Amino acid sequence: MNVVRNVITKRELIEASDELVKETFWQDVFKSLIKDRMAIAGGIVILLFILVSIFAPLIAPHDPYEVNLDQQFLKPSGEHWLGTDMFGRDVLSRIIYGSRISLLIGIIPSLITMTIGIVLGIVAGYFGKKTDFTIMTISDMVLSFPSLLLAMVVMYTLGASLLNIFIALSIVGWAGTARVVRSQTLSLKNKEFVESAKAIGVKPYIIMIRHILPNCIPQLLVLFTLEIPGAILSEASLSFLGVGAQPPASSWGLMVSNGKEFLFNAPWVAISPGIAILIVVLAFNFLGDGLRDALDPYLKS
Q1: 22, 71, 102, 170: least surrounded by Cβ within 10 Å?
Q2: Among 86, 94, 81, residue whose Cα is nearest residue 68
Q3: Does residue 102 carry a pLDDT above 90?
Q4: What is the rounded distance in angstroms from the CA atom of residue 98 to the CA atom of residue 43?
Q5: CA 81, CA 204: separation in Å to the nearest integer?
Q6: Cis peptide before 273 (omega within 30 of 0)
Q7: Is residue 178 situated within a structural domain?
Q8: What total number of domains does the chain contain?
Q9: pLDDT tens, position by position, 4-16
Q10: Residue 161 belongs to what domain range?
């Protein structure tokens, strides 16, 4: 009985120490993050844009789709803060509604690419050999093409629509995540805790989910915050080239594309959505840099 009690006590102590280490780690990350003013500013800006996109019908001062040819190219004023476009539509209202499309295109394809990359990266790194060779060869083929060019090929093949943008950005974005997760898996699969799990007969998929994946979360968080602005810029580029969101959608990239013809006569039509893209991309990059500094022990001051 004493031996059993000792074993139970030791096991409880180990579990308690593990929980303490995890708690201390995330507390340390949070403390480091809140000291980074740029990261906090980026997080606040992202939160504001998310709230604006959610409550767009309540915030937008005008109907973003209402055409009024009598109010074409009105300059910014008290009634129209950012002026009107070639169809007399309020630019500010279209930017507010456009935040919905830009954030959706930034978040949803990034989640899909992260999921695909995590699954393929862990499988390639854990099993190795032919599985690793096959998956990494496919990822090298994807990475060998310029991402925007490959996305354009997919959009021209499938047609221009919001759903096809999700598909195109998901196809071109998973390879980088897969390589990052594979490298982490290769460094973790020979650790003592993984070898112990193998020795007692734990199934491979359980090892990958419960032992390897949690140790990749810090890197994946940083990667996710950097994937989102990339997807937003890709959507803006596709819309600018005419293969992204289609009228009458108020996509920021489409607004820039439509306003470029009137850049000298009515610059606010193109510049305003361009500034919105710049602010959101910078905010996500600042937050990603802050997370990287907080999670990487080698970058901490």
Answers
A1: 22
A2: 86
A3: no
A4: 20
A5: 58
A6: no
A7: yes
A8: 1
A9: 444 445 455 445 4
A10: 57-289
